[in-house]
Known about the structure:
2 domains
Amino acid sequence: xxxxxxxxxxxxxxxxxxxxxxxxxxTVPILGAVDTGVVGQLGTAAPIGAVGLGAIILSSLFWxxxxxxxxxxxxxxxAVGQADEIENRAILxxxxxxxxxxxxxxxxxxxxxxxxxxxxAPASAEVETLTREYVSIRMxxxxxxxxxxxxxxxxxxKERTGAVLALQLMVNGVNVGLDFWFVLGxxxxxxxxxxxxxxxxxxxxxxxxxLCRGALTSVSQGLMxxxxxxIQIRRMGGVSTDILIRSLLLQVIFVSFLFFGAGLGDVTLxxxxxxxxxxxxxxxxxxxxxxxxxxxxxxxxxxxxxxHLRRASILxxxxxxxxxxxLAVVFVIFGTAFIDLLTTSEPVRAEAKNYLxxxxxxxxxxxxxxMLDGIFIGATRTRDMRDMMALSTVIYGVALLCLLPxxxxxxxxxxxxxxxxxxGVTLGMRYGRLEAGVRDQSPVPG
Length: 446
């Protein structure tokens, strides 16, 4: 993609990037439902708990390296804007090296990691045995799963989100098919679910590498020298570290939310878990337009075009805003029915409906932080993201201390929304500096 291509930012281009991501995200819950459903046919509770616990343990470990997707998108998009094809290919190779290295590290450290996980989340002897079987098989997919993070980020930067959708559909499709075959056909139980995921993720990596084949052929000495360029390695390391810290702080907010919710009773805890599905839907819906901002803003920053940076930010945010207003209306009309669909417990249903108003506000409040995250990732202004996330976490903590004793679960949800508002406002206050950095053609800091 040339620099001139990066200048033609339109509504159509934003949608072309965003829609495949929204569709791709919609397939994610299906896989979890199938995993649960097939082991549910075994007739006992332990396999269900083992697959659920194992999936949480592994997704948490893999998620640590989620920074690779975001860092790769921002850096590769800027290389596109600079029309620097050598650096663009070098970024992909660096991301693959990090992905494989991180995956191998997890495999080597799996014993102590699993020991800590089972200490933190104790289970019955039967569930723990089955969970250990599951994670010991699936852990061998770590290099593939983490490398796919980097490839996905690179494809987004190149605006090839149709390829991202194809990759997601392929991985999930293979996984679902193997679930039915291994578990219900061959009777492999929990191990069958694990082997299905293992094969699906390595198959996905093969497809992902094929999708990037143009950048991986004709590896020259000059390209390899760029891959190991210490300046570029330090830049990628700085961006990745900032994003990791920011993500860990965000996780602190969500984990503490669940922790304090548990102290309000079993019914309230269950109701909050139901309501968190509204938050997930909001996040998945916003992701597509946040990713479009990452790609288009990154290209504009690489090309040093402030007008295109601003247009990319505005158009992506306008479409996100329209979708979030629509989603809020959907929550108003169908929110109670969705709660009834998610649980058959009448006390939990009644409790969840008491807090539905916060779910209606969530999409409207979420526009700011999600879209600004996308804009700042594309610009690789990750130090601002890290610092403003730290400030927002402090604001959330103060709100929690003040509101939880007074309003119980309403106070808990209010504090969560305040954290979203704080993230949007604090990053918004830094947007002017982002434009100024591009206008002055000064280096964009990590």
